[in-house]
Bifunctional aspartate kinase/homoserine dehydrogenase I (Mucilaginibacter segetis), 816 residues
Amino acid sequence: MKVLKFGGTSVGSVNSIQTLLNILKNDDKSTGLPVVVLSAMSGVTNLLISMAEEAAAGNDFTQTLAELEKRHYDVVKKLLHVQNQNPAYTRLKIHFNQLEELLQGVLTLKELTPKTHDLILSYGERCSTLMISKIAAQHFDNALFVDAAELIKTDSSFGHARVNMELTELLIRGFYKENSDKVLFITGFIASNEAEQITTLGRGGSDYTAAIFGSALNASEIQIWTDVNGMMTADPRMVKKAFSLEELTYTEAMELSYFGAKVIYPPTMTPAFLKKIPIVIKNTFDPEFKGTVIRHDCKASLLPIKGISSINNISILNLQGSGMVGKSGFSGRLFSLLAREQINIILITQSSSEHSITFAVQPEDVYHAKTLIEQEFELELLAQKLDPLVVEQDQAILAIVGENMKQTPGMSGKLFHALGRNGVNVRAIAQGSSEYNISVIISSADLAKALNAVHDAFFVQLTKTLHAFCLGTGNIGRTLFDQLNAHRDFLQENNGIQVKIAGISNTRKMVFNADGLSLNSWKDELEQSVTTANLEDFISRMKEMNLPNCVFIDNTASPKPIEFYETIFKSNISVVTCNKIGNSASYSQYKTFRDTARKHGVDFFYETNVGAGLPIIRTLKDLMSSGDRVQRIEAILSGTISFIFNHFKADVNFHDVVKMAQEKGYTEPDPRDDLRGTDFMRKMLILARDAGYEMEATDVQIERILPKACLVAQTVDDFYAALLAEDAYFANLKDKAEREKKVLRYIGKLEDGKASITLQMVDENHPFYMLSGSDNIISFTTDRYKERPLVVKGPGAGAEVTAAGVFADLINVGAN
Ligand code: ADP
Ligand code: ASP
Ligand code: MG
């Protein structure tokens, strides 16, 4: 025989009640008729509570009561045959009249005792079960309504009564003996004390009712039918990627639901555990789905943890002072005091120095707890052996749960890495000695981010979501979006990474979407956005959204975003940039960026600062971090100048080559911006700094390519005229090189801490002799690569390769 319990949403509407009946009809009855436990219709218990509270406060409740009645009558009207409706209306009406009288009494007395509170709540389950048993009677000729208050006996702790199992089991068995030929529809949640007064088993207690019946009747299975696909790795409302767990042990299920992760009420586990009855959590709205089985002998799981549970909005109290050190019985005194007054302690941590105790309670218990403690420890507080009690509101607990944690080192490391990288401050930590649970207290504002980040960190088989905020929609920005779009599936399958663009801004507009902007229509969305671009707002918004695994991408060449890098790092957001200005301004700024990023455990990647997508920065970093030392770097890092000298051959003149380069889009609007060597200088400076030299821009010696007349020309046209006028100078250089069978190369060099860029003539033995198009080349001579240098060569400019470099950096952030 099986016990089937249907929760609030499963009895909350006409459709769900029809589904429920279908489930019962299809149930395999070979081992006996099903025993059905029902909750109140969804939301009804909350409504009853609010009516009781309104009445106690002297406010009108009739409107709410009328809504409640209507919800039940609507179901009767839709699901009961006309001839069966009147008896049902009558029975329900009697309940509602009693309820109204009760509430009226509360209103008159302006007093709501726990006893009356429970009695009022009991109408939720009584009405729903009565109504559904009547509907079921149309399908099963042996359906019977059962009031569990007559069978489940408890003490008088109203609100969360403790069950007298022995007596209850006897009563249930006795009753079942007489009625095993009927389909029983039992009210969940409610019970009664010795004086026959109604008690309740705690919020969510219908699950417990099912386990009590299951245990008394030695059921083969207890099924909990709800509105999700079983127990999931986290609350699916908070973590979209949460997935269903196939199996759990009772302890794991208990730990996962302990902090009020609903799905199942923790006390449910005990009777089932004692009798080794499996609990199966199933989805009423997807009955075919296997759901989760909680059982004794689970097969070994490959998952490092089973799930993450959390409780939001709790308060913590911190008591500290020398008076606690070495005092045996101090915590006993503290906690017995709170227990005596029924204050539930959610979590406790004590520092090993015994200097402080931190514990968490529900916000509504704070005031009471504080007063009690201040009274109890009055003398210690007066003598300053204890510091004044500190209360912190708006906190949350996040816990990772799973039996596998016991055998696996590094679990807490992974937890704290994920939290730290996302800037989540941990207020207190507790690890159960069972090692099945590690709990941390964090700020409520960080809970959603923390849950998702920790979920990503532990369930690596799922894709990790990066939230990117992109500045700049020029050539590179646009190309990056195209590449991300084209490689979306590949990224998910091969790298396990999903990139969501959570914000885009250009100089005119900005848009945001925490779920990710569409990579197909971002342009239209940005165009239609009503939000005018404002860099400061863009960055504040990015911080406020507080998304996990967040990356700021600067695809501009503007100095403005640089001002914000430091605060971005301080918000634990990584930065990926192709903007060279940040790294090539003052050395102190360069260093600050690095130090701040490191301090906050985030990444600062700028591969495209030098040689676009070529792996230059990364190579240098790898050499340095593996203990190698750079002796010399030689490089051609200006794609534009390379192009110009590669085409400055035979009978072309310099003027025409520059013009051609400009026409092909290889130069800045004023080609002198390239030919002056400033851009090249910046790259050399960044390389020198990354190679460990504390260098400023003025330390890089630049040999001019252009004669003075070209440099001082007012306009671009004047510049071209000056180039023509100086043709003899360039022709001379070219002829000399050709005579000596050499080529002209503009080469950057770093040696002995000195950086320079010079125009050289190199012969065919030089590694830079053969260079085509706008290629870059760099050779590293190091302690290890001393005989033959390590050379990186390839296209070092263009939107495609630069965007690809930014893309690679982004993926590297994801990998950390
Ligand atoms: P019922 O009314 O059927 O008893 P509950 O509301 O008590 O249902 O519990 C189901 C809800 O629990 C789900 O809708 C889900 O939002 C929430 N929940 C919280 N944590 C989890 C989790 N780890 N797995 C599944 N559901 C969870
Ligand atoms: N109706 C009760 C509640 O909402 C019991 C339950 O649904 O399990 O807490
Ligand atoms: Mg529930």
